[in-house]
């Protein structure tokens, strides 16, 4: 409920603020992210796990006003589960910005990466899908409100260890992005 209220307030603020254009083509950025992990679906992991927090950082590159790529590291923590207390995710996410250089834009993204589950020795395949809204406050600072779907499954030849099935997670999150000049 608390997360829902914060996201509603941020989305309202993003929509009612003034409109400016910030073309970030060719620029790089770094950012921090935080949110809540929500296991979804009916499987062994999701029935036992209770999502906790997700947090991490990323570096970003704008190819043009519409296309962005992020290299991200995210840690997802879980409560009430003894087989896996956290997942470390390293993935590459491609994002499409519908309004390009406008200061408020809906976004969609798709990513692929590797996941290490704590207490496992094997790496797992991570697939991430994203929908959200991003708001640029200046040429240097942007805020994003996203809903990510993360699916974690075994890589060919690897074992999920004590997790007998895929992990399916929704991660509502807030991201703060700082752009820096390329020299």
Care to describe what's here?
By secondary structure, the protein is mainly β. The protein has one domain (about 1-15, about 25-180): Porin, CATH 2.40.160. About 10% of the residues lie in helices and about 55% in strands. The protein contains 2 helices and 9 strands, in the order H-E-E-H-E-E-E-E-E-E-E. The chain has helices spanning about 1-15, 45-50; strands at about 30-35, 40, 50-60, 65-80, 85-95, 105-115, 125-135, 140-155, 165-180. Strands 1-3-4-5-6-7-8-9 form an 8-stranded antiparallel beta barrel. A hairpin with a 6-residue loop joins strand 5 (about 85-95) and strand 6. The longest helix has 15 residues, at about 1-15. It is elongated and about 45 Å long. About 30% of the residues are buried. The model has no long low-confidence stretch (mean pLDDT about 80).
Which architecture does the CATH hierarchy give at level 2? Beta Barrel
Main sheet: strands, sense, barrel:
8 strands, antiparallel, barrel
Summarize model confidence as the mean pLDDT.
80
The Cα radius of gyration reads 17 Å
Q: How many distinct folded domains?
A: 1
Q: Could you estimate the helical fraction of the residues in percent?
A: 10-25%
Order of helices and strands: HEEHEEEEEEE
Q: How many strand units? A: 9
CATH class: Mainly Beta
What fraction strand?
A: over 45%
Specify the overall morphology: elongated
Briefly note the CATH topology name.
Porin
């Amino acid at each position: 409920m608390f997360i829902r209220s914060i996201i509603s307030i941020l989305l309202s603020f993003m929509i009612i603020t003034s409109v400016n254009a910030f073309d970030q083509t060719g620029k790089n950025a770094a950012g921090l992210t935080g949110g809540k992990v929500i296991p979804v679906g009916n499987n062994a992991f999701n029935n036992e796990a209770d999502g906790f927090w997700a947090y991490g950082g990323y570096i970003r590159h704008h190819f043009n006003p519409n296309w962005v790529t992020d290299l991200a590291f995210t840690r997802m923590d879980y409560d009430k589960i003894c087989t896996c207390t956290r997942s470390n995710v390293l993935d590459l996410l491609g994002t499409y910005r519908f309004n390009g250089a406008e200061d408020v834009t809906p976004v969609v993204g798709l990513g692929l990466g590797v996941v290490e589950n704590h207490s496992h020795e094997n790496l797992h395949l991570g697939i991430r899908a994203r929908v959200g809204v991003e708001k640029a406050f200046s040429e240097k600072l942007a805020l994003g409100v996203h809903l990510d779907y993360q699916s974690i499954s075994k890589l060919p030849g690897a074992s999920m260890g004590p997790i007998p099935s895929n992990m399916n997670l929704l991660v509502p999150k807030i991201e703060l992005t700082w752009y820096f000049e390329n020299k």
